[in-house]
Automatic annotation (TrEMBL):
Similarity remark: Belongs to the aldehyde dehydrogenase family.
Pfam family, one: Aldedh
Name of this protein: aldehyde dehydrogenase (NAD(+))
Active site positions, chain numbering: E268
EC number: 1.2.1.3
Length: 515
């Protein structure tokens, strides 16, 4: 079935995507096509969707200068007024939910339902940011000196650089920008070169709102290109905060470059997420949670479930139930709602999936539900693969790595201590879950003796976090927190103010300085 039957051409038209697009923008203005072209092919059907020109160094300079100027006026607009702009963006996103969801699905390969879910996260973060725009509060403390007042304020930082990954091609941008904007910052976004058209669409969606509200040019900038543009951002002293989502390898490079100039970075890197299934689990919840976590987005979420740590008394039962559930999965065009699993992002990802399966066998694991690359009608892109279940011990090198593919490793435990040690026994620390109806096990898992991850759930899988909580992880996941709770503080600088309204100058710590 041609993808036009799913309304792709219409969606592209509505979003202002052309055959060739400039990839460099300062907000409402596109800077023209100067650099090499990135061709965006759909993993759904292997067809060319459109081309995007990369940002040249000259264009990058122009963009940073425009952003610097924009910051000077944007920060003067009261935060609730900036929130009003974000509220209107949320309204626009509601109007474009279907077309943007479709583009996300077609360019990235996740299911249309998940594409819609991703746009919903954008709408949710807009709503969150609107409320936040009236709550950017600091504390007031009592001074030790008489007639003094001491308090803290949060001020905007300046330019925020955002480097985002292909797997959440629009939501991650919005988590960062919507908060940054209400905080008074301006943004420069470098999307993944695998999903450049999503950045064009988002930029087109905000244009109308920016024009109607006279938002200064430079508040919402887009640059496109490969890692070299990422390097420019990371080493640019004019960009006080760089928020980067992607692999640990990429994050270490960004962290080093930003650290070398003592900038701030917000890193949201790889996960190696496990679910512990105890003998007290509700197995229906456990199997559904594990299944969605492992095969949702074709295993390409940073929160995807990669390991199942199962109590030995129920191991065989879980293994059989899960294998049966996997056999019901329909793999195919993600725009077709009857399919559960879409393609991997590209052929490089397919190669990594194949290499990982080789490694499992070579390192002593065993595959219990075979994988393989699908071919034939509907699978012409060469990116569709079968989700795999393997048995492998936690210390295998391949189990220790994050393979961005639907490969799930099963392993046994006998005591809860052992299970928690296995769950924590990886370098990553993003998401984790325990399936149990036993209060002691649940509380133990959530305590300081439990999961060492940024996200720890009970009777919920590892993926599908809501935007209201702070999102991110520990250890090599990078330590950053995005979206909800008080993650906004990263986008601002804190200033402590002490004000003397008396007629004398008493010094702190009781020091006397007479002259
Ligand atoms: C990611 O994969 O980078 O928790 C983010 C989830 C989504 C976000 C995933 N809300 O699955």
């Amino acid at each position: 079935m041609s993808n036009d039957n799913f309304g792709i051409s219409e969606a592209l038209k509505a979003l202002g995507i052309k055959a060739e697009n400039s990839g460099s923008s300062t907000g409402t203005k596109w800077l023209g096509s100067k650099g090499e072209l990135i061709e965006s092919y759909s993993p759904v059907d292997g067809k060319l969707i459109g081309k995007v020109s990369t940002t040249t160094e000259d264009q990058y300079e122009e963009i940073v200068k425009t952003a610097e100027e924009a910051f000077k006026s944007w920060r003067l607009i009261p935060a609730p007024k900036r929130g009003e702009v974000v509220r209107q963006i949320g309204e626009e996103l509601r109007k474009y939910k279907e077309s943007l969801g479709k583009l996300v699905s077609y360019e990235m390969g996740k299911s249309y339902q998940e594409g819609l879910g991703e746009v919903q996260e954008m709408i949710d973060i807009c709503d969150f940011a609107v409320g936040l725009s009236r709550q950017l509060h600091g504390l007031t403390m009592h001074s030790e000196r008489p007639n003094h007042r001491m308090y803290e304020q949060y001020h905007p930082l300046g330019i925020v650089g955002i480097i985002s990954a292909f797997n959440f091609p629009v939501a991650v941008w919005s988590w960062n920008t919507m908060l940054a904007w209400v905080c008074g910052d301006v943004c420069i976004w470098k999307p993944s070169e695998k999903t450049p058209l999503c950045s064009i669409a988002c930029q087109n969606i905000i244009t109308k709102v920016f024009e109607a509200n006279n938002v200064p040019e430079g508040v919402s900038c887009v640059v496109n290109g490969d890692y070299k543009i990422g390097q420019l951002i990371s080493s640019d002293k004019r960009i006080p905060l760089v928020s980067a989502t992607g692999s640990i390898r990429m994050g270490k490079k960004v962290g080093e470059a930003v650290g070398a100039r003592l900038g701030k970075s917000l890193l949201e890197l790889g996960g190696n997420n496990a679910i512990i299934i105890t003998e007290n689990a509700d197995l229906e919840i456990a199997i559904t949670g594990a299944l969605f976590g492992a095969v949702g987005t074709c295993g390409q979420r940073c929160t995807s479930t990669r390991r199942l740590i199962i109590h030995d008394s129920i191991y065989e039962d879980v293994k059989n139930k899960l294998t049966n559930a996997y056999k019901q999965l329909r793999i195919g065009n993600p725009l077709d709602e009857k399919n559960h699993v879409g393609p991997l992002i590209d052929k490089d990802a397919v190669k990594m999936y194949e290499n990982a399966l080789e490694a499992v066998k070579a390192q002593g694991g065993s595959i219990i539900l075979e994988g393989g690359v699908l071919s034939g009608e509907g699978y012409e892109s060469g990116c569709y693969v079968k989700p795999v279940i393997a048995e492998a011990s936690n210390d295998l090198q391949i189990v220790q790595e994050e393979t961005f593919a639907p490969i799930l490793y099963l392993m046994k435990y006998s005591t809860i201590d052992e299970a928690i040690e296995m769950q924590n026994g990886v370098v990553q620390g993003l998401s984790s879950a325990i399936m149990t109806t036993n209060m002691r096990e649940a509380e133990r898992f959530l305590s300081h003796q439990g999961s060492d991850c940024g996200i720890a759930n009970v009777n919920i899988g590892t993926s599908g976090a809501e935007i209201g909580g702070a999102f991110g992880g520990e250890k090599e996941t990078g330590g950053g927190r995005e979206s909800g709770s008080d993650a906004w503080k990263v986008y601002m600088r804190r200033q402590t103010n002490t004000l003397n309204y008396g007629t004398e100058l008493p010094l702190a710590q009781g020091i006397k300085f007479d002259f």
